[in-house]
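Sample entry (187 residues):
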Amino acid sequence: MSSAQIATGSSGGRAPSANVSGRRSGDPLLSRETDGELPPRSGPRPKTQVESGQSQLDQSGLAALADRLVEAMIGLDSVRLGPSGIGGPSARAGHLLPAVANGPAEAFIVGTEFGHVHSDGSGSLHMVLPTARATEAVDAGWAEWHPTVAAHERPPNLVLVYGARNDNDFRVIWGLLQDSYRFARGV
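Predicted structure, serialized as tokens:
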């Protein structure tokens, strides 16, 4: 899929369309999807477990939307796809090139990894957000805290974001992933 297809939501029939470009002129790192308050997520929170790595157990997202998130993530400037430092062997992680990884140490999961999409069929992802945005995502029902946050082993900014079930979910989650990217870039 081309960058233009990701930005316009054209997916060749693989997933519902969603316009995720929403860029403000003069600032290629900002998206209208992330401006302002997050809308509440519809429905109850999915069931999750933490016994063998935090994962979403029900209300799985659409695989095509998870794939679009990965394609959009690696379409961001200076992002490379690679294995996750903590997400298991099949998680697809976004890593910033070291030269632009200017965010604080707590903006990264491991190394220059700022987020990864799970390949367990749930479409869920882990990402690091600024503390206020992470709290907002949890409060609006889009995410829950990573167990290391609950155990006070890291700052309250690493979250499990639930898989995208539809275009509306995709737009919000893509916006959160862009927030994570900007946090990691230090902008």
